[in-house]
């Protein structure tokens, strides 16, 4: 099966089973949104190529676990830590993860069912199974992570050469056990490292600051509250807010708000009805400088707002409509 090519980031993000998440593009990117998927019964492999830098928030479904490996050159940070070649990010059921990429990223990922994971975990002596239910960054060695990466890529190569290679239960189950064991051995090694106590714990955990901050930003986009009240709503200083958002999203809360607003405008344009206008839609989100907004929109989504509206209404954009300026 060839890799699936998606027209935009939403179709790409929605194609991944077992996880509820939101993706936001944050910058320019001309590459494809591509995903290669290999289903192995209780375990799914993914090889993805992002078409642009993104923000991401999401959590696996109940009974689903995941491992995310960032490939070289991706500049990916999840839960405030760079995902390097000596580790991977572990996703536990129903635990939200935040992260971002500074450039269009490529990755490998594994989606495990609880049954497959725990069956293999029972074979590994002294493994702390409770640690599997915590979302965290697992750091071991380049060799151990490279072995996992090589196994995944080899599985895709085998499937490409022989599409029926994993149809029989014997080879499929043997591979699933080998890969799952390699991942769990990384857990075991990471779990044996002594933790370093940190002084000066902030009044609110970083995750909670960001959760409250994102919730306030969403409410402000709906017109329920003012964005400027975010420190009061969160219960943290502006400095703590900035630090938490920078750690998890690589940007300040105000920048995050502007990106969310652009995506909210895009959603509203795509669901427009007869009689809706760009001016009217933008005014819902407190945007009055339509020329500047149109330029930002075109850089982000490769489409002018008037073209987006015309698509939704099944009409051609009229000459001189706001946001129809030619791209440079």
Describe the structure.
This protein is of the alpha+beta class and 328 residues long. The chain has a domain of 189 residues: Sandwich (Jelly Rolls). 42% of the residues lie in helices and 20% in strands. Strands 1-3-4-11-6-9-12 form a seven-stranded antiparallel β-sheet. The protein has a five-stranded antiparallel β-sheet with strand order 2-5-10-7-8. Helix 3 runs antiparallel to helix 4 and helix 5 crosses helix 8.
Compose a concise summary of this entry.
The chain is an alpha+beta fold and 328 residues long.
Structural class designation? alpha+beta
Query: Helical proportion?
Result: 40-55%
Order of helices and strands: EHEEEEEEEEEEHEHHHHHHHHH
How would a crystallographer describe the biggest sheet?
7 strands, antiparallel
Would you report the number of β strands?
12
Order of strands across the main sheet: 1-3-4-11-6-9-12
Question: What is the residue-averaged pLDDT?
Answer: 88
User: The CATH topology of the domain at 4-192 is what?
Assistant: Jelly Rolls
Which shape, going by the Cα principal axes? globular
Distance between the termini: 38 Å
| CATH-defined architecture of the domain at 4-192 | Sandwich
Low-confidence stretches: 193-202, 318-328
Look at the structure and give the CATH class of the domain at 4-192. Answer: Mainly Beta
Rg is: 22 Å
Number of helices: 11
Q: What percent strand?
A: 15-25%
Domain HTH araC/xylS-type: 211-311
Organism: Stenotrophomonas aracearum
Keywords: DNA-binding, Transcription, Transcription regulation
Protein name: Helix-turn-helix domain-containing protein
